[in-house]
Write a structure and sequence with these properties.
Helices cover about 20% and strands about 30% of the residues. By secondary structure, it is an alpha+beta fold. The radius of gyration is 17 Å and the shape is globular.
């Protein structure tokens, strides 16, 4: 008898477990963007403290499913390959 546990993403009668997880993650990112008033996934112009201007697609540095409210200021974002934190943003304008 094999006692090694396995991650069952199929579940019984629930269809595609991985697809549901991806959908849940997308909804969490959408909700986070709405709460922070950030156009995640869109082309933006971001001005950072110190006069740095970045243009490109705004994304999360790392995929997160849940974020604690007290950690929002430390949320890591990126525009193309440039990384920064939420607290570094002076302004952010959606360009598309």
């Amino acid at each position: 008898m094999d006692k090694q546990g396995q991650l069952n993403l199929e579940g019984e009668g629930h269809g595609d477990g991985h697809g549901r997880w991806l959908t849940m993650r997308r909804l969490a990112v959408t909700d986070l963007a709405r709460r922070l008033n950030l156009p995640l996934g869109h082309k933006v112009e971001v001005w950072l403290a110190g006069g740095v201007c970045l243009r490109g697609q705004l994304r999360l540095q790392e995929e997160v499913l849940f974020i604690e409210e007290e950690r929002v200021r430390h949320l890591e974002l990126k525009v193309d390959r440039a990384s920064f934190t939420y607290r570094d943003i002076e302004s952010c304008v959606r360009l598309d």
